[in-house]
Amino acid sequence: MNKIVQITPRDMVAVALQPLAAGEAVNYGAGEVTPLSDIPMGHKVALRDIKKGEPVIKYGFPIGEATEDIPAGGHVHSHNLHTLLSGAHDYAYRPTHPAVERREPVTFMGYPRKHGRPGIRNELWIIPTVGCVNDIAKALAKKAQGLVGGSVEGVYAFPHPYGCSQMGGDQDNTRQALANLCTHPNAGGVLLLGLGCENSGIDQIVPLMGEYDESRFRTLITQQVEDEQEAAMALIEALAENMRSDRRVPCPADQLVVGLKCGGSDGLSGITANPTIGVFSDILTSMGGSTILTEVPEMFGAETILMDRCADEGLFGKTVHLINDFKDYFESYHMPVYENPSPGNKAGGITTLEDKALGCTQKSGSSPVRGVLKYAEKVQTPGLNLLSAPGNDLVASTALALSGAQLVLFSTGRGTPFGCPVPTVKIASNTPLAEKKRNWIDFDAGRLLSGMSLDELGKALMDYVLAVAGGQPTRNEANGFHDLAIFKQGVTL
Asked: Are residues 344 and 201 part of one domain?
């Protein structure tokens, strides 16, 4: 196995596929280089002399500017490289119109729904309208565990701190987020649990739900009953009884919506895990299915790649707004748009936001962008969609579920245990992580470095997704980890 990889012939740096020792020459496609110091796995080594002020090329694009002269063999990282990113930009549409190979959709075993796409789970969800009833919701979920079995695949509460003391867009987002959860296809039954005096109460949420199956939905205002737990359990038992006749049936993969997310990335994420997800995305969208790419701040520096793949100029314009509106959001709080990567990213070899973004966008594959979504807007157009949400792992993964994703693919080079409201597949960028954290990791993309081809890995991931969609539990589900995090931008009253 090669010890380093030059991702494109234009690149001035290579990435260490394993720790490199100072003074030991290593080969790459165009020659060899001798590291001048020990270089950790995932970090960058200069393939030639780089002058101070010169743009440093990786993935075929600039990832920043050298802050000092860097000799061939030098370690290229935070001590000698900084971002070139700034605020909002004007962009030009230069469409690439990538070719799309059409495929017949395969099937998965899902739960058909009266309105909308099939579910890949049949769970009973208890959704509080406001944080004041969080503990009631959690107590009810604990009490209702005896109902789990057969077609009732789980009972979960989704506490959150919102529903009151919010204004404007934040309040609108919370209401729409909760409405979308109530109609999510993975929920075979929903109890919407209110207090009775909150801003975002049941009367505000239900009108935002659109069409829904009344047999699968109940509401309770706790201030209006003497014993809220007794009243709620009667509703939960009725929902569970209604779910017991549900059965999995073959469903076409064009009905799948899959969210794409990365977190705790390392220098290998953009070489192994994210490109593997990109191959999967191309396969699913070629069958008529949908994928959603989010984490807008982690598109900064690679946004033109996505803009040029927009299917038409209208989508290009929406993508420009998607990017610049998030930059404006940062600057409205007097924060630099490049306050990223995280300490864990840097420890794993990612230096600048451009470095991170160019790796992050690998998850989108090569398909055209067919949709651009606001936060908590549901997918309408099959194909690759871009979604407005921040980079925060829990917030972004929740946003994918709110937009209709039945599961989320989550690549990581550092490891993370969490799960969002839907199955959250953890894809390791390197085999040592996959072997060390078997209780967190579902899929090892590090196998790309030990002989598997990218196409083979992408197809293997497709097979795994179909198995998960058919009922195979992910590690977060086996561990009982399900979290909800709603995006908040403004004032708390």
From this structure: no
